[in-house]
Amino acid sequence: MDWLQIVVLSIVQGLTEFLPISSSAHLILVPVFTDWYDQGLVFDVALHIGSLSAVVLYFRNELVGMTVSWCRSVAGKGCDEDARLAWWVILATIPVGLAGLAFQDAIEGIMRSPLVIAGGLIGFGLLLAYADWRRRGTRNEYQLSWQDALWIGLAQALALIPGTSRSGITMTAGLLLGLNREGAARFSFLLSIPVIVLAGGLEIVGLAGSAGPVDWGALIMGALLSGLSAYLCIHFFLVFIKRIGMQPFVVYRLVLGVALIWLFGGSPS
How far is Cα 62 from Cα 82, in angstroms, rounded to an integer? Predict the structure, then answer.
């Protein structure tokens, strides 16, 4: 891999993992406009590690509080708002884990069609537009009920459809359930932690038994760039949506979806 490929893929991963614009759509566009060969699972794992490190670092204080309180609740010493939030993250992760196991073959096959991605970008983009346009709630992530967490988790399972965007559909569900923009986004980012861990774990399993040379320089650079771009993305996205909202991302999704239809509309795959 040359340095330009490393930089582009790392930044694409870091940004699209958390913006509501679908990482799968962008990663499929990269080889369309380049002649780069597939970067391989090892590099994908490095990029996921970078993204995971960014979200953990950004929410480090919340995560420490959630972990300590969750352990206390397991020990029967009470359940405060931090413990409840930790339990809701766990609850909301279950549907996507089960759906991933049940529909893995379909996801890796026909559902990776560019036209499916375009449909996901447009359809779920319009749903995000509706959720953001309607009257917004005032609750934050600490005011979720277990029913809210379960609904958001069920929505997150839809992100297995390429083009949906995991962050986009979970933020949409949060807004529809009465969360404010920042609360919906922050809960979505917290939900990304177990999802990235699960996805990275599956990729590592896929690497089991494989052997070959490892370009440690590329892996380290990819992880660092992915982590840096992801951290900046989280910070500025939370500021941006508080002032402007989700509509610019909706417009971007619609434009990208139409572009994919134009590019691949005459192709059977």
Answer: 8
- pLDDT digits (tens), the chain, 269 positions: 788 989 998 999 899 889 999 887 787 677 777 877 767 667 888 888 999 999 999 999 999 999 999 999 999 998 999 999 999 999 999 999 898 777 766 665 556 678 888 999 999 999 999 999 986 788 999 999 999 999 999 999 998 888 899 999 999 999 999 999 999 999 999 999 999 888 777 777 666 666 566 678 888 999 999 999 999 999 999 999 988 999 999 999 999 999 888 888 765 44
Query: Which are the contacts of 102, defined by CB distance < 8 A and separation ≥ 6?
Result: none
160 neighbors 181 (Cβ within 8 angstroms): no
pTM over 0.85: yes
Q: Which of 43, 29, 30 is nearest to 1 (CA)?
A: 43
Contact 53, 227 (CB under 8 A): yes
Q: Which pair of structure tokens corresponds to residue 244? A: 């402007």
